[in-house]
Design goal:
The chain has 138 residues and is an all-alpha fold. It has one domain. The chain is 80% helix and 0% strand. It has 6 helices and no strands. The longest helix has 24 residues. The mean pLDDT is 94.
């Protein structure tokens, strides 16, 4: 019962936010993130494998770890705390750590960068969207 009420409450909260006309429909986020998480799991998993095999240093794997932390924090901040300012900061950190991660792995394993282009494009779009939603609802 609590889960259903919480879900309806969160859904209603998100629906009442002012969003730009170019915001994608809610149903699109699930399929997009499903594909992205497959790409992230494969490429980040390979980076982790390289680290554990001592083929890359911690300085290369660190931005990948931070990116995952900030990525996984997004939903609890947005839908748990319902704090647009904090979630805007978080999505900026997702984007910055992703750029850092891709730049750090580029000289060593370029396919990881290529595999994450869709993730980079989506996070770039999501960053602009979240900053716009945050501004519109300030």
């Amino acid at each position: 019962m609590w889960v259903k009420i919480y879900t309806v409450e969160v859904y209603l909260w998100y629906q009442q936010l002012i969003k730009p006309s170019w915001a994608p429909p809610g149903w699109l986020f699930g399929p997009v993130w499903t594909v992205l998480y497959v790409l992230i799991a494969a490429s980040y998993g390979y980076v982790g494998y390289l680290f554990f095999k001592k083929k890359i240093p911690l300085s290369v794997v660190l931005p990948f770890i931070l990116n995952l932390i900030f990525n996984f924090a997004f939903t609890p901040i947005q839908f748990g705390l319902r704090n647009n300012t904090l979630v805007a900061l978080d999505i900026l950190l997702v984007l910055l750590t992703l750029v850092w991660a891709l730049a750090s792995i580029w000289p060593r394993v370029r396919w990881v960068v290529y595999a994450n282009i869709p993730y980079f494009l989506w996070v770039s779009f999501a960053t602009v969207l979240q900053l716009t939603v945050t501004y519109l609802n300030a």
